[in-house]
Design goal:
Distance between the termini: 53 Å
Radius of gyration: 30 Å
Shape: rod-shaped
Oligomer: single chain
Length: about 220
C-alpha cells in the first residue's frame, strides 16, 4: 500500500506542465487521446503490467492537470468565448460532470489495481463501458475551443486587412508627395539638390512600405 502511494506521487511529480506551449484547442484535443490511452493502460495494468500501471498514473495526472487548465481558461477570454466554454463544461447539458466522473473512475480503478483489490475487475469493466460517453463529451469540448479559435482567427484577419489597407493608403499619398517633390526639385535646378535627395529617400521608403504591405497580404491569406 505504501509503495503504491509512493509510486503514484513520483509519477505525478515527473509529469510536465500540461499546458506548456500548447494552445487550448490542441490541449482539448489531447484530452481525447489521453482518455483512450488511460483506458488501454488501465486494462493492461489490471492484467499485471506494472509499467502500464505507472504509465496510467502519469496519464491520469496529465489529464487532470489539463482539465483544470481548460476549466480556468475562460477567465482569460473575452465574454462571448468565456460563456461558450462555461456552457460546454458547466451548463445544463455540460460535459464537465461526465469528464469528472470518468477521472474518478480511472483513479478508483488504478487504486484497486495498485492495492490488488478484488474490486479491480469490476472497476475496469465499468471504465471500459464509459469509453464512448467520455469520448463524446471530450469531442464536444474540443469543438467549442475549435470554434472559438476560428472566430478569433477571422477577427484577426479582418483587423489585419484593415491595417494593410491603411498602410497602402498612406503609401499612395507618400508617393504623390515624393513625385511632386522630385518635380519641384528638378525645376529648382542646383538649388533643389538637397530637396531631391530627401524626395528620393521618401520614394525608397514608400517602395519598402509597398513591399511590406504585399507581404502582409500574403501572410494574412495563409492564416
Amino acid at each position: 500500500m505504501h509503495s503504491s502511494t509512493h509510486s503514484s506521487s513520483r509519477s505525478v511529480a515527473s509529469t510536465p506542465s500540461a499546458a506548456a506551449g500548447i494552445s487550448t484547442v490542441n490541449l482539448a484535443a489531447r484530452q481525447r487521446m489521453l482518455s483512450q490511452r488511460m483506458i488501454l493502460q488501465t486494462v493492461l495494468a489490471s492484467q499485471g503490467d506494472k509499467d502500464k500501471l505507472q504509465a496510467a498514473q502519469r496519464s491520469l495526472a496529465l489529464f487532470s492537470e489539463s482539465q483544470q487548465t481548460l476549466l480556468q481558461v475562460s477567465k482569460t477570454m473575452d465574454a462571448p468565448s468565456a460563456r461558450k466554454v462555461d456552457t460546454v463544461y458547466l451548463g445544463e447539458q455540460g460535459v464537465g460532470a461526465t469528464i469528472q466522473l470518468f477521472t474518478k473512475m480511472v483513479r478508483t480503478a488504478l487504486d484497486y489495481i495498485a492495492q490488488r483489490d478484488n474490486r479491480q475487475a469490476a472497476a475496469v469493466a465499468e471504465l471500459v463501458e464509459h469509453t464512448d460517453q467520455v469520448l463524446e463529451a471530450l469531442n464536444k469540448a474540443t469543438t467549442v475551443f475549435d470554434e472559438i479559435s476560428k472566430t478569433k482567427s477571422d477577427s484577426m484577419m479582418r483587423e489585419l486587412t484593415g491595417i494593410v489597407s491603411d498602410i497602402q493608403s498612406v503609401a499612395r499619398e507618400a508617393k504623390v508627395v515624393s513625385f511632386n517633390a522630385l518635380v519641384i526639385a528638378a525645376r529648382a535646378g542646383q538649388f533643389g539638390r538637397e530637396f531631391a535627395v530627401v524626395a528620393n529617400v521618401l520614394t525608397g521608403i514608400t517602395g519598402r512600405i509597398d513591399g511590406l504591405s504585399r507581404e502582409a497580404i500574403v501572410l494574412a491569406g495563409r492564416s
